[in-house]
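Why this split exists: single-chain examples teach little about how molecules sit against one another. For that reason, every record in the complexes split bundles all components of an assembly together and asks for one structure covering all of them. Below is a record exactly as it appears in the raw files.
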Amino acid sequence: MAQTAGAIVEKLPVVAIRDLHKSFGALEVLKGISFTAREGEVISLIGSSGSGKSTLLRCINMLEVPDKGVVAIDGEEIKLRGEAPRRHIGDENQIRRIRSELGMVFQSFNLWAHLTILENVMEAPLIVQKRARPEVEAEARAMLTKVGIGEKADSYPSQLSGGQQQRAAIARALCINPRVMLFDEPTSALDPELEVEVLRVIKILADEGRTMVLVTHDMEFARSVSDRVIFLHQGLIEEEGTPEEVFGATKSARLKQFLNAANHE
Amino acid sequence: MSEDIAFWLSYLTNGKHLTWYASFQFTIFAAVAGGILAVVFGLIGATLKNSRYLPLRLIGTFYSSIVRGVPDVLFFLFFPLAFEQAVEWIWASQVCTPEMIAAQSAAWPPCKAANWILTTPEYLILASVSLGLVYGAFATNVIHGAMRSVPHGQLEAARAYGMSTGQVLWRVQIRQMWVYALPGLSNVWMLIIKATSLLSLLQIADIVLWADRLGAPNFLPAVGLVHDDWRWRYYLVLFVFYILVTLISEKGFNALMRRAGRGMLNEGHH
């Protein structure tokens, strides 16, 4: 959602990333990336496969530890120790606290198969955030209703369609009251007809003013949902701007090529 | 006819037979305690094998690959004796004075005060621990494989939501691995049940020892145990007992499997 023109107060960066580098063996996936996501901003990361967009997203909550560079959430820098390739989490308590406020939605849902949908949504609030069960259960049920699967609370993930599972995963992310929601290609594993129901939920969340970073291959969706779009190419930011700028007045030849290819998919 | 019934009734309820019946509790205790310990040692061993730290990984691997190769009979003889003497040795270093050691004529223990006399309950516990250690090595292998079968993405999700390494292990990986581990663990359980027939090696008057005694020709004529070599009849009773245990175990494992498989086994969709 575009920020209202009347917003005078400079909004705080919720996610700040500076000069991120990451290699897997000899392959350098991220070559120095910086960007910030401000309160309420929706940022889409686009780019061809192998451009490093998923790796970048996974660096935000340190599922991948960058070789170089800084990630800060709400102005708090995530502590890392050591040098690449042995760079690792510096403070387990800090990262757990920060992660407990980042709601991640995975491409392959990754719901816990041994728990019911309701239990999946309640797990992190109860176990990690140590909130009271009655409060968490009420909120979990409300979130499931919000994503349109309230009646599936007592089913197991394996009993749900892919679209329902992904919506349950979104409810799981919502129930931790996240500062930021991270979406890693949330519809790539879904059939086209199931994609729609998930995209609709994400759109609602974007319109609510939630801070979100979204990796997507769906250009139409990126255009409709984002405040800012970042195009990655070979581990670097090739172009970034509002959807109007990036899709309407494309500057980079590579982005033009990429968008052409995406349109002809 | 009724005399026959009366004879068998009094024969089968005489004191020695009652002792035999009571000794079934030793077998059942050793199996259950050994089984639980095997799972506990298996969980510890598998966790060590999965550890990020090389020394821990080596301990886990050493345990599962070496102990599996040791014959259970040998371990049964070795472990309780070694444990007993180790305790006595430590104890002796605390209580034995030089005079007491000089007064001791036997080779072991160093002095009489450090003599630990084991009776059936202690032997039973040592036997259960032995079973647990030997079959825990098998369980380690089974559980280790099962833990690796848990989908990686679900562990990653647990980390992404702020769970600690221990919470990921306990709340996701171990909860989910049962469905992969139970078929293998049911095999380990059957091996443990079979191995309970070795209890008599540890001076425990168990079902096998009593069957042997009661079936022997003219064992204790004074109390009416006069007959030919009836051992095969008594062994047959043991066969039936072990078959019943097998059948019950199978039912039990099926129930466990249903419980562990909730949400994880395909059980009709949408």
